[in-house]
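Recall from the previous lesson that a structure prediction takes nothing but the amino acid sequence as input. Here we apply that procedure to Tyrosine-protein kinase from Channa striata. The sequence below is the only information supplied.
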Amino acid sequence: MHPRHSQYARRRQELRNRQGRVSYRCCSCPSAKESRCQGAETRPRVSSSHGPSGFSDGLIWAFCESREWAVSNHYPSFGVTTIPNYNNFHSATTQGVTVFGGVHTSSQSGTLRSRGGTGVTLFVALYDYEARTEDDLSFRKGERFQILNSTEGDWWEARSLTTGGTGYIPSNYVAPVDSIQAEDWYFGKLGRKDAERQLLSNGNARGTFLIRESETTKGAYSLSIQDWDDIKGDHVKHYKIRKLDSGGYYITTRAQFETLQQLVQHYSARAAGLCCRLIVPCHKGMPRLTDLSVKTKDVWEIPRESLQLIKRLGNGQFGEVWMGTWNGTTKVAVKTLKPGTMSPESFLEEAQIMKKLRHDKLVQLYAVVSEEPIYIVTEYMSKGSLLDFLKDGEGRGLKLPNLVDMAAQVAAGMAYIERMNYIHRDLRSANILVGDSLVCKIADFGLARLIEDNEYTARQGAKFPIKWTAPEAALYGKFTIKSDVWSFGILLTELVTKGRVPYPGMNNREVLEQVERGYRMPCPQDCPSSLHELMVQCWKKDPEERPTFEYLQAFLEDYFTATEPQYQPGDNL
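The prediction returns the following tokens.
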């Protein structure tokens, strides 16, 4: 065995040995304790005050080369009205304001003052923005602002120094003037795999690059560059940018720079030991907004007439999905539920929790219409469901590396749900949505338990997804995060077979009987044995013997990179 393979095997075994210790509780459990920290982060990181996910109690660390994962003896419960806001870096309890991907700003680089304060740093627009309501302010990239009020979380009241207009702007569309956050090449808190995904998307050439925060070293950065050669084709190389005690930066000690901007200028002029010189910054997609507007941030039950249904995207047993607009300005997806599908009161209660679940790999819930017929308003995903994408769309031609990457994205979203002590209950490719650049996001989390259809709730009828459901959940109604892990194993078969129905040739009754007797699906055609072994782990009879989603994410993200160095040393560096 290659020595690096053995290192990864040992570390994965460490995670596997610990995975059964994580405790889970239903989000509605009355004994749930309030979480002790709101300073959560979207990726596991080392912090002096917080562990992964921002929680500081009982963490066990497992290190793996250039990234860390943590398994917790005890995660905080989820039966509270507030949960950590993973996309909001504006906390009233901090000294100064941590913004722009978690970079802490000083009084000279973005600390916001209250209305009427002096010495307020100017901000610059990173993108164009069209106002969605009369309270918003339209602006263009490069426009400069004075921030008047930053107490509304993700929405700031600002005055444009270009137009003189005043209104609310999304805080993740701006950055302090002359800061690194204002640079086109700076991507802030972007994980290694997401950096590779963006750099390898269509249209990027060799020399496309970005700089991001280091996942492992506080205060350091990583330079990620798209490269090409005859053997690998397009691929990404990563270089550590280290910080000097004096405040400068370097990749090699022989070339030191006072600022990151100077470092970029140097390597843009010459490769100087890198795989190639820096040609052009990677294109930044538009930031995701977690609310439709500042008005719907707290009051997000909206009038039905504010929605315009434009194109039906699909229909199912319990309703339809439409592409539409809100307020005539904002493209959204609208799920319309047939009357009687679920109690409006129960739905609104669950939606209060769903609205606060915020992660890049979860479809963001924007708003609801809770009177029947119930409308669920979410972000719009351009490629539709993963099932349709694999069977009839662009996904038919995808190769194994893309399919494994999509599985890793789903595992990342489910790892967040796992950390939040939440349960999906209906994890399958039909409930995964696909966007541009093969981005995958989990939809419909938590809704399955609200369905009141008799044929569904009996867990025997044609409407119930027996073939995706763990036996303890199908037979006894015991839904846990571990039954979601079983479903994830089935979803893996959907990916490698391009949307084939699981257990081909068997009906629901036969599936239940055979699975109870120990039958498990064989390795699909052209599926690597190591990936099938992962599926079988997900289908362990004892739920506690199944992997955690944290482990599944780590395994899949490193599936093709276990034999390669995490960071390039650089030629002649």
